[in-house]
Write a structure and sequence with these properties.
It is built from 2 helices and 9 strands, in the order E-E-E-E-E-H-E-E-E-E-H. The protein is mainly beta and about 150 residues long. It has a single domain, classed as Beta Barrel (Hypothetical Protein Pfu-838710-001), CATH 2.40.320. Strands 1-5-4-3-2-6-7-8 form an 8-stranded antiparallel barrel. The termini are far apart.
């Protein structure tokens, strides 16, 4: 079974911006059920279908499959719940770990979060100075939640 151990944080400043260039992503949800989510994401002419299980802290089942880009675009337009999540993703290596920073657009403009994937839930890592409050367990920061309850409405 594919497993994901991911922790999510807010940012304290823009010090990360000079460290990476972002790539534009569009993602939409075919299913946002609490027990499972199914999403389609397009990035740089590639498309991925992702199925995730229920989050238990930082741990949850995850399966990802590359699909034809044209199919991914059609699923976003014709099958995914609206609005589509739009964001720019920045990838930054820091002290042996990769941080992914998502800067959201559209109805979620102004929201910026950082994620780190770990090998175990208790794995130690050093936080960069721009990492702030942890929001791993707060469902309002889940991308799937941002469809129904966008950041602009908080």
């Amino acid at each position: 079974m594919g497993m994901e151990i991911e922790r999510k944080f807010l940012l304290t400043n823009d010090g990360w911006r000079k460290l990476a260039e972002g790539v534009y992503c569009r993602q939409g949800y075919l299913n946002r059920n609490k027990e499972r989510t199914v999403r389609v994401r397009t990035v740089n002419k590639k498309a991925v279908l992702t199925i995730k299980g229920i989050a238990r802290g930082a741990l949850r089942a995850e399966y990802e499959y590359e699909i034809p880009y044209k199919d991914g675009c059609e699923m976003l337009e014709n099958l995914a719940e609206k609005p589509i999540i739009e964001k720019k993703r920045y990838t930054i290596d820091y002290k042996g770990f990769t941080w992914e920073i998502d800067e959201f657009y559209g109805n979620n403009r102004g929201l910026v979060v950082a994620e780190i994937e770990l090998s175990s839930e208790d794995q130690h890592f050093q936080k960069p100075g721009w990492i702030g409050e942890e929001v791993t367990d707060d469902p309002k920061y889940f991308n799937s939640s941002l469809v129904k309850h966008p950041y602009a409405a908080w």
